[in-house]
Amino acid sequence: MRAADFPYLSGPTPLALAHRGGALLPDNVGLENTLGAFRRARALGYRHLETDAHVTADGEVVAFHDDSLDRVTDAEGRIADLPWSEVSQARVGGVEPVPRLADLLEEMPDALLNIDVKADAALEPTVEVLRRHGAVERVCIGSFSERRVRAARRALGPRLATAAGPVGTAALRFTPDVVARVLHTPAPVLQVPAHHRVAGRVVELVTPGFVRRAHAAGKQVHVWFHSWSVEDAPEYHRLLDLGVDGVVADRIDVLADVLAERGRPLTGGAVG
Fold first, then answer.
1. Looking at 54, 65, 215, 226, which residue is catalytic?
2. Contacts of 103 (CB under 8 A, 6+ apart)
3. How distant, in Å, are the alpha carbons of 167, 183, 234, 252, 253 from that of 44?
4. Over the range 154-182, which residues count as b (16 or more CB within 10 Å of their CB) and which as e?
């Protein structure tokens, strides 16, 4: 199947994805992956939202980046070791509760979610949440673990959009046999960092040839940014000029302005 055959990917491109709700939007700083952050992204016109999935000790799937609550909440401990009754009391930035994946699906029934499954234990509960909410065609599943992505595809069937992970795509520029293998996987999306560090140097991964090969294979290219990457309006313009199909942005206000400048304003769905 080609990317256009998946409901999650069938809209006009480029797609604008709010990374953790848009972690560097001024009103979202310190409040990533909260319902408040996602609401603010929706208010800017974002329909595609990127989030992460962890699971509590008693099986609740939460939208949260790290396994530990310590970094961004007023609580401590590993999510995997705590029951939902305790995780639900934590406040991101001291203000916002940690949301369940089910909360996000229920509150925003027309949102399209890119979900990074962060732990093996989170996979089966995430699958069950998506089944229970009839949300298979609303999501794209990615992970640093290709094994998790394959397992999700087996569990949820051929209508599930999946993304080839960074390990495979990072090698895409350098090894012909890896190019062939990744481009012929069932994953309709290649999720690629704009740049990657290889042997101490920064390498540009997203090139005209890279995008051309992906499109020839019927796949979309979605670009994300490392914390050390330059993410600004000129970089967004550069990537869009290369023909990328999606941008996973932290600076969602800046990306919205860039898209409007290019005559592709956000409308609450795919960029059109």
1. 65
2. 35, 63
3. 32, 34, 20, 8, 7
4. ebbeeebbbbbbbebbbbbbeeeebbeeb
Domain count across the chain: 1
pTM of the model: 0.92
237 part of the active site: no
Q: How many residues in the chain?
A: 272
Per-residue pLDDT of the chain (272 residues; tens, 9 = 90+): 799 999 999 889 999 999 999 999 999 999 999 999 999 999 999 999 999 999 999 999 999 999 999 999 999 999 999 999 999 999 999 999 999 999 999 999 999 999 999 999 999 999 999 999 999 999 999 988 889 999 999 999 999 999 986 544 444 554 555 555 556 678 999 998 888 887 788 888 888 988 998 999 999 999 999 999 999 999 999 999 999 999 999 999 999 999 999 999 998 644 33
The residue segments making up the domain with residue 104 are 3-69+99-261
Report if residue 120 sits inside a domain. Answer: yes
> How far is Cα 127 from Cα 148, in angstroms, rounded to an integer?
11
Which residue in 19, 48, 54, 222 is the catalytic one? 19
Query: Do the domain assignments include residue 28?
Result: yes
Which CATH number characterizes residue 54's domain? 3.20.20.190
Residue 49 lies in a domain: yes
DSSP 10: -
Active site residue 65: yes
